[in-house]
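Researcher: I'd like a structural prediction for the single chain below. Treat it as a standalone chain; there are no partners to consider.
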Amino acid sequence: MKDIFGLGKVLPIDKLIDIVSSVTGRLSKPYFDRKDIDTKAYEIKKLAEARAEEMKIISKAVQENFLLTGGIDYTESGVAISSPKELLISNPRIEIINPTLEERTQSRIEFKEAKKQLNLESVTAFAAEELKDEQPVTDEPIDETWKTRFFNIAEEVSSEDMQALWGRILAGEIKKPKSYSLRTLELLKNLSKEEAECFMKFACLAFTSNGTSFIINFQSEKLLEERYQLTFRERLLLEELGLVTANDLQFELPSTTAKTQSVFTIGNICILVNRSENLPQQNIPVLVFTKIGQELLQLIEPSPELEYIQLLASKVRIKGVDVKYATITKFEGDYIYHSDLQDVPFTNEELIKEQEQIKKEEERRLREEERIKLDEERKRKLDERNK
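Model: Treating it as a single chain, here is the predicted structure.
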């Protein structure tokens, strides 16, 4: 792997080749070609089918001859199917050669190792697909222990969907080493389908701000309980897995002495909360993702709906607070480039509340006017009596 840019940067695919070569041996770019991977998969599939067919033929032969003879003889060299009856065939004895224990063991090992190799190649091919359009990445090496643990897990992954997922993890670690901890790898390896689906439900609603990822606490939130069907049982499951914290927490927007701006992101959307001076502290009730949970969030690409963005806005929008959102076009370091900002629409609850507030203010204004009239009337009568 060469730093061809002289800036501590290398081509992502070269870094991938270097990493995989250190584990599986010398490689070149064609190794990651999906067509080659599919060809190897086809070869292994055909090998397995041929062996299965061979076993069917043996099984059928045994069954048919058993009906004729009722007897099977076992010898040191193999299995002999014979008949005491006179059969209408030239050779009354069929020999089925039984491979030795050593041969069967070697065959099993070869097949098992070929399958592991295919799994590794598929995972790394998916990683290469993720990296093919990436800009040069850091030449910081990946931890040796991490590499060993990753490839030990990857060689056992046979599902194409999971291979794609592990390929994304490898690509993410290449782009930014230390993105995924060893604990995260172990948790993901043991995650069941039900647990993964549960995490996905919560992860698709994760806001991130100042390095903290969270969802709005769904307790008594009609939208989250009914529209997104989040349940307390699922929350307990994610707490048990160590993906969300066990406590009800508050995301704090501190009191202001000057104008401030807070930025929240979810998927490809950024939300800007602009607060004027002299505002009190505001708190949003949230469920916070743990470190492992945040690492796994990198694998999720949520497509947030406007109504969920509106829910966040409704938690902070008071007089002196302006909430806008936009589509993110690019991340560059700590900078976010986005499309034109738009006002986050009010929720129905906010509109109802605003109408009630307007009604109350109108009633207060009318009462004040009535009070002033009464005061003026009393003063007029008092003046008349004093004349």
